[in-house]
Amino acid sequence: METSQPEEWQIVLIDDEADIREVTAITLQDAGYRVATAADGQAGLTLFAECAPQIVITDIRMPRMDGLAVLESIKQSDQDTEVIVVTAFGEMDLAIRALQLDASDFITKPINDESLHLALRRVRERYTARKQARDYTALLEKRNADQARILHRDKMMSLGRLAASVVHEINNPLSGILNYLRLMARVLNRGPLDAEHQAKFETYLELVESETGRCSRIVSSLLTFSRKSTPAFEPIDFTELIERTMVLSQHKLTLSDITVSQQVNPNLPPVEADFNQLQQCLINLIFNAIDAMPQGGTLDLSVRARQGNQGVSVAVKDSGTGIAPDDQSHIFEPFYTTKDEGFGVGLGLSTVYGIMESHNGTIQVDSAPHQGATFTLHLPSAAAPQTEVSEIVRRHL
Ligand SMILES: Nc1ncnc2c1ncn2[C@@H]1O[C@H](COP(=O)(O)OP(=O)(O)OP(=O)(O)O)[C@@H](O)[C@H]1O
Ligand SMILES: [Mg+2]
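Above: the input record for the complex with magnesium ion. Below: its predicted structure, written as tokens.
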């Protein structure tokens, strides 16, 4: 992160007494500050607008516009400006009023160097800390926005690939349905149905119904997956998760000559997660597995409770090319790919990583060249204690 210390500290000093103004300005300049002075509140505000100082030192008792009015006006235009007010000895009530109006500190007249520098050191620290906090918040917001963009981009790419593969899957049953309907229409045109045709029609109608149901399931899974929804944490039914994911990937797996086995253990501890995002993770892992098995192979999907029922682990295991140790340290980086241009962008695993992070989960890879790869998602149980927010912030700082 950039340093939050300004290169130069600019002070606007407002006091109606010329002597005090001059002496204080010299003291401040000697200490390395850039100083601009004004003889009354109105001139002070004009100077403030011109030089945008980090610090304003203003006398409270001044004719026409007093220091409290100056303070209020400054805080209205820029809350972050540090304002030190100067009061006469014994004017505690004014000092308190100034602090209530968000003055950073007060010093009393006659101004002594030590208390002036002490007050300045405090407001500088306050200013820097506040700026750091703001920079950090901006950084977090930007990081979140970047992550959301990558997530969406990866999803659209998965969607493109899924759509291409399910179009075939929908097309086959549709032509089957069309053929049966044409056949039935032709028979009906010939005259009333005899008993033999009646029985055949019943079988055809059952086929039409089941095939239409299959198409509709595929389309609805694709639509659910493509919806740009804000992440919502809900209890996860892992059987449904695997089933919906398979509806979308089955055709590509069959085409690639890959045998699939699935196992969802019963009695899983409760997990709250974003269903859609978990599906995106699984689809990314399954598509990677397919790419790693160009000659076909086996894919095992398993869901089991983590040790001590602390959560749920979802493993995607393939019998493909495996991953070289050198590549393993990079595969989660965005845009890292070993695939030829047009075959991979390198966003799949970094997206899975990001999704796991936002779920307080982790992803583990076990692989060796020519020995396949297993990617395991570890998700915490909704019943397990969550990491304290303050701890997260501390870890980031
Ligand atoms: N199951 C796997 N077997 C072998 N290598 C894998 C497997 N999964 C990932 N990899 C390696 O990790 C790299 C990064 O994977 P990632 O999913 O992030 O990107 P990609 O698949 O190359 O491109 P994209 O997913 O954006 O289309 C892959 O290029 C590949 O080298
Ligand atoms: Mg991929």
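Notes for the reader.
Residues 385-397 have pLDDT under 50 and may be disordered.
The domain at 146-396 is CATH 3.30.565.10 (Heat Shock Protein 90).
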